[in-house]
Amino acid sequence: MRYPSKLIRGQILGDRYLVAGLVGSGGSSHVHLGEDLRLPGKRWAIKECVTEDLYGTVQAEAELLIALNHRRLPRVADFIPPDEDDYSYLVMDFIEGLTLDRYMEARGGVIPGDTLLLFAEQLLEVLQYLHQHRPPIVYRDLKPSNIMLTPDNELMLIDFGIARRHRMDAGEDTVKLGTVGFAAPEQYGSGQSDHRSDLYGLGALLLYLATGGQTSGWSAGMERRLEGRVPEPLIPVLRRLLRPRPEDRYESAAEVLRILEGVKPDRSAGERKNEPLVERILPQGKTSIVTMMGTASGLGTTHASLAAARFLSRYGRTAWVDYAPESPVYERIGALAEAAGRRAPSEGADGPLEVNGFDCWKRPGSGSLADLAGRYRYIVIDMGTGAYEGAAERFSQGDIPMLIASGADWRMEETLVRLRRCGYQPAGGWKIALPLAGSQAAELLRRTLGSKEVYTLPCQPEPFATGGEMEPVLKNLFVSILEKGGGRNKGSFLQRKKR
């Protein structure tokens, strides 16, 4: 979103909703987690929009959702009109789970045909409900980031920003809206969107998921590409859903549902009918701690730790902690947040700062992170160079202790000396990362130490970036906590200071 958020953690909105943290941001809004002060334990999603000339659009979304009642749609609890800065707020059900884009990413782009069939049936169910209204309600923006998968294997549509009621007298859409690659051709000037536009969007979405995100448009030879990826009877259904002309597609969601009733699921891929798909990717468990410490200053320990926190935040709620007692990094991040128009904690407060999907904290005075453990799935601890009392011992207590070292030939002796001083043991589960080093340097250190746990970190100038060469390395480094979903929680990091 091009406007900064006005909400900060701990703020109370509308004398009722306690802001608990930022969930995500999109092109037109921020979404925060809110706790209901009148109904203890009830959580809401607070959608924050800058209305300006869009007040009618946001109000129309609220009115549209209030009028709907379906288990695959969020309920709207409250609408707070624009304030003096034109910020308005929509309070709706908070949906636990993963968006489909994150689910596909966590699956490595491979989604079993049985699961695709389940998704198709559920989305057709909610489209049938929307289209049966008079006039029909057209969603117009089916895409992975607008669909949530809950731990109960239920899909939910979570953004109604461009949905509208179909106007029979209009020749074409007044405003061309929709996401390129998923929107039907008529949404971009060739006619007026109607319920068949959503059927096209469904076909594009399913094809995108079936091909691991490679394409959402039908092309020559697609039937062969889909063999083994989707149930065979689903292939001609996708082909017809993606016809360029609305009149060549199916007439209704109900018609497609009737066809899919005869398609038998194929469970050969190992998916079980009632297996919780979300927990299979993000199993519930204890907090996992990644400790990162540099063998010398200037090696990029902070850069690597921020990249690690950004990566892990896509798999669960993540905190980054500036743990070295005299480190200025937390304050610098706060200054950058303020310069970018994001509110930082008031003077004297220690956090958190919300940065690119994760929370940044300053080291607690006691050194214990017990207060953070129950709130986060992952905690990444930047320990600097560890030149302070107790650092080496606490470093070893991480679920993944990672030393950042130099791969330069002329610093190899320095690296080995520091490893000995830190108490390095090849069997201790420690990982060693060499920023910007070549494969030969990593192999030399592996042979010298007798350990396979030596990795090179490729160049990534922006630590908050996603994708690129860094991503597969981070996934390999953290595979144990991503698969097991929980850490040991041992040692003094998570112990409360005795009074």
TrEMBL record:
Domain Protein kinase intervals: 17-263
Keyword Iron-sulfur among UniProt keywords: no
Binding site for ATP: K47
SMART domains reported in the protein's UniProt record: S_TKc (SM00220)
Main EC class the enzyme belongs to: transferase
Pfam families in alphabetical order: Pkinase
Catalysis performed (reactions): L-seryl-[protein] + ATP = O-phospho-L-seryl-[protein] + ADP + H(+); L-threonyl-[protein] + ATP = O-phospho-L-threonyl-[protein] + ADP + H(+)
Transmembrane recorded as keyword: no
Keywords, in A-Z order: ATP-binding, Kinase, Nucleotide-binding, Serine/threonine-protein kinase, Transferase
A GO term for molecular function: protein serine/threonine kinase activity
EC number: 2.7.11.1
Signal peptide feature range: none
Protein name from the UniProt record: non-specific serine/threonine protein kinase
